[in-house]
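Q: NAD(P)H-dependent oxidoreductase, please. Structure only.
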Amino acid sequence: MDDIRKVIADAYYFRTAVRVYNDRKIPDEDLNLILDAAWRSPSSVGLEGWRFVVLNNEDIKKEIKEVAWGAQYQLETASHFILLLAEKNARYDGDSMYQSLVRRGIPDGDGITSRIKTYEDFQKRDMHMADNPRALFDWTAKQTYIALGNMMTNAALMGIDSCPIEGFDYDKVNEILAKHGVLDPEKEGIASMLSLGYRLRDPRHPQNRKPREHVITYFD
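A: Structure for NAD(P)H-dependent oxidoreductase:
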């Protein structure tokens, strides 16, 4: 157990936001394990309202680079570049919610009806989002960050660097992806991006965080 703890702790101290990568490529088996971390991640009510697109098309990368100030070097140098897409309009009474229940083995009939009623209460009473398209997208988009974190941790455990990216014009990136058929803008939108590879150089500054006791507290 102590060995496992050390491996995990080392991975967290190894991970840093890498902006420039060397030309080494991530082996397919390692990339697939990173992607599996996203695929197997938990999501609210088991919806899985996401997709993860490994973007290999250099022409699309060049177009995105023009509107992504936070991904200039990553788009040029990363071994792999991943787009995290979130579902739109994931209402309690939509097909994606129904399919998620079927996928999890909830029996048709009263079983599904009861579960959908619970999700209706959740979306209407608790989250106040059922009739708000922006709120529904924000709900699914923030779930992709669970998968994002899991991918970065998996990568770090294998000595692979990463950088999560939000620095881009969301509307223009969505337009680019829609133009090329990467997504249907009526159904999905970009949530964030992730670059993966191997750092060209060590970071200039040590990893700094707020004092642990300021971030983690206990209330008895």
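A: Brief note, in case it's useful. The mean pLDDT is 96.
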